[in-house]
Design brief:
disordered N terminus, 8-stranded parallel β-barrel, 698 residues, 7-stranded antiparallel beta sheet, single chain
């Protein structure tokens, strides 16, 4: 009897010790409550609708009259509904862009909506967004540009008080906010109350960000603050929507100029792509990218919006790499999201729902090589497939490379793997591998480095297996994995790729065989009744080619659209001794011509025949370098190459961050044989780089 009692006591003691196993110690810096809420948002949209919409620019100069802002059908509910249909959980409203026009009736400047014709001066666009978000249960964030090209006091100490007063108005009247968004576009040329001059600021000190953001913390404590250098959320360093294949949630910002304080516009922004392993701050990345080529609506970009499957690719490269996706929406001049953009968002939302509707790992038998303290209730693998993002499978302190086998008991087909860590304990894992049981052996199907809040591994092909194995291959401490999922992305028809030779021959092709490809050249959306592609065709005068692939029934891919100018056969550069200048018209974006500055004569092109021009195009260098990027220009035309008339001048705003093809619409079509492009200013360096210069003919 005594022996039995002793044995029972020992078992009870052992059981008690197991269940009292302490939680893993946190690793590194940790997220705040507001950062966790931001991370859970995963996707939101930033909405650009203001003066630049009506002026067909990316950045307004600041001299736009208040009377210009008068949308006929502005509908915040339609805009927010379009975002929600795409699966987005919130919007960031551009309440003031660089032109200084305020979309709410502010007391700080006359350049605001109350001085416009919209609703007879009684309108408040920010309030309409706020009410729409409340009605649709969407989160609201705000962006008030720190750069103001309208304000006469910009660059002076007085402006900081104006800017802070604007933030206080917004924070007081339009909360609660999930985000306060700031960028690094600070200082440059502008209207400035009529001065029409260039004003430079010290980006590290002018805004006194510590105290300015103190206003945010005090008035909107739940709002995560976004900026080039945080403090809550960092810029990923590009406007392509991609985080690094390795993406750390921690980050140590570094100034672009040694000895300076890292700040908005004053960081080595390229380091934001991957972040910093064991960085000084918990500062995850936001991946911002416009749905169209530009952030504001431009009619010339109709039909060129990113497809639903392109958005899906961006989702995997942002949300799937522990970042958040911030998609730019641009309402048109009426104040509505265009029908084509609405449809794309809807299709994207449907694909996401279909993909993540069923976790094939649920119901499977999960077996781990180690469970912390053998405490299955608290740290067991059952937490990997529950609905709690912060319950987790943990290992003993000395076990940093455990394995997990998922037995689904029958073959299942999947092509997406999801992993999540409990980030409340830090970002711990540095390497994983996933194997599938195939041909009576384990075969590796995927590897990854960082995990963090979310890791989605999109497999290049479908995998069918009954058993899957997860191996943690690198971690400095015990793991705290909160989620494991296997999903099946729906069948996707291959999108047609459209190319054209220098002679004007257009070819269509798909990565995988399809039943048929249909196309149009008149700008209309292709359908089953459109011409069937059978062989290359000539398009020497240019135009918009749209193509779609079909499979059985009416199942089809998304539409691919490419706009071409007239072929450049017969074009030549006038009066150029440097033969390399011909690279500007060789139809190859990977080569570029160099013009030494100041280029008073510019680049003169003889098209060989009189052509009616409605737009001209400029493509900057595409090699990720910014030296020589043209951001201000003049465009001239001539019938004889001697007498010139200026047709356009302006700036390629935001080209440094978003170096897409620049398409400039002329005020009216014009006939010319010659045109001249003069770079007036470049981002940096002493030579203007021109990958391609061209026109769009009528």
């Amino acid at each position: 009897m005594i022996k039995r009692l002793t044995l029972s006591a020992q078992l009870l003691l052992a059981t008690g010790l197991a269940f009292s196993q302490p939680a893993p110690k946190p690793y590194g810096v940790l997220p705040s409550a507001r950062q966790i809420k931001w991370q859970e948002t995963e996707m939101y949209c930033i909405v650009h609708f203001s003066m630049a919409t009506f002026d067909d620019k990316e950045w307004g100069y600041g001299d736009e009259p208040n009377s210009m802002f008068n949308p006929s059908s502005f509908n915040a509910l339609q805009i927010v509904s379009a975002a929600k249909a795409g699966g987005f959980k919130g919007i960031v409203v551009v309440a003031k862009h660089h032109d200084g026009f305020c979309l709410w009736p502010t007391k700080t400047t006359a350049h605001n909506i109350s001085q416009s014709p919209y609703k007879n001066g009684k309108g408040d666009v920010v309030k309409e967004y706020q009410e729409a978000c409340k009605q649709l249960n969407m989160k609201l964030g705000l962006y008030c540009s720190p750069w103001d090209r309208n304000n006469a006091n910009y660059g002076k100490p007085e402006y900081l008080q104006i800017y802070r007063a604007q933030l206080k108005e917004l924070y007081s009247n339009y909360g609660p906010l999930f985000m306060s968004w700031h960028d690094g576009a600070n200082g440059g040329d502008g209207f400035y109350g009529g001065a029409r001059e260039t004003r430079k600021i010290d980006r590290t000190t002018y805004y006194d960000w510590k105290n300015t953001w103190g206003i945010t913390r005090s008035m909107q404590p739940t709002a995560a603050i976004f900026g080039d250098a945080g403090p809550d959320v960092r810029w990923v360093g590009n406007e392509e929507g991609n985080a690094g294949e390795t993406s750390w949630e921690t980050y140590t910002p570094e100034p672009s100029v040694p000895g300076q304080q890292p700040s908005n516009g004053e960081v080595k922004y390229w380091l934001g792509v991957e972040g910093t392993r064991n960085g000084k701050y918990w500062m995850p990345a936001e991946c911002d990218v416009p749905l169209r080529n530009g952030w504001f609506y431009h009619e010339a970009q109709d039909g060129q919006s990113k497809s639903a499957y392109k958005l899906l690719d961006l989702y995997y490269k942002s949300v799937g790499r522990a970042a958040c996706l911030d998609l730019g929406l641009s309402p048109n001049k009426k104040g509505l999201i265009a029908a084509e953009d609405q449809q794309i968002l809807k299709e994207f939302g449907q694909i996401l729902k279909q993909t993540f509707a069923v976790n094939l790992a649920k119901g499977a038998t999960l077996t781990a090589s180690n469970v912390r303290g053998k405490n299955q209730a608290q740290y067991g693998v059952n937490h990997l497939t529950d609905n709690d993002r912060y319950s987790y499978w943990a290992t003993d302190d000395k076990v940093t490379e455990p394995q997990l086998v998922i037995d689904m008991h029958k073959p299942n087909t999947f092509n997406v793997i999801r992993l999540r860590e409990n980030i409340k304990l830090g970002q711990r894992i540095e390497g994983v591998a996933v194997d599938a049981w195939q041909n009576n052996k384990w075969e590796t199907i995927a590897t990854a480095t960082s995990i963090g809040a979310n890791r989605l591994i999109r497999l290049p092909q479908n995998i069918t297996a009954a058993k899957v194995r997860l191996r943690i291959t690198a971690a400095p401490v015990s793991i705290a994995l909160s989620d494991f999922g296997l999903f099946k992305e729906p069948v996707h028809l291959s999108v047609p790729q459209i190319s054209r030779t220098a002679a004007g021959e257009v070819s269509l092709a798909t990565e995988a065989p399809v039943r048929s490809i249909h196309y149009t050249t008149d700008g209309q959306a292709p359908t089953l009744s459109s011409p069937v592609y059978q062989h290359p065709f000539m398009l020497p005068v240019g135009g918009t080619v749209k193509a779609i692939s079909y499979e059985s029934g009416d199942k089809h891919s998304e539409i691919k659209s490419v706009q071409f100018g007239p072929v450049k056969v017969g074009w030549h550069i006038v009066g150029a001794d440097d033969k390399s200048l011909a690279k500007a018209i060789d139809d190859d974006v990977n080569t570029f011509a160099e013009l030494s500055l100041p280029a008073t004569e510019g680049l003169i092109v003889d098209m060989g025949q009189t052509t009616t021009i409605k737009q001209f195009t400029y493509q900057s260098r595409t090699d990720k370098h910014t030296d020589g990027m043209v951001d201000a220009y003049e465009f001239y035309y001539s019938a004889d190459g001697t007498n010139w008339t200026k047709a356009a001048s302006g700036e390629f705003a935001n080209i440094k961050s978003n170096p897409v093809l620049q398409v400039v619409s002329l005020s009216a079509p014009l006939s010319a044989r010659y045109f001249k492009f003069i770079p007036k200013h470049i981002i940096q360096g002493n030579k203007a780089e021109i990958a391609e210069i061209g026109i769009i003919a009528l």
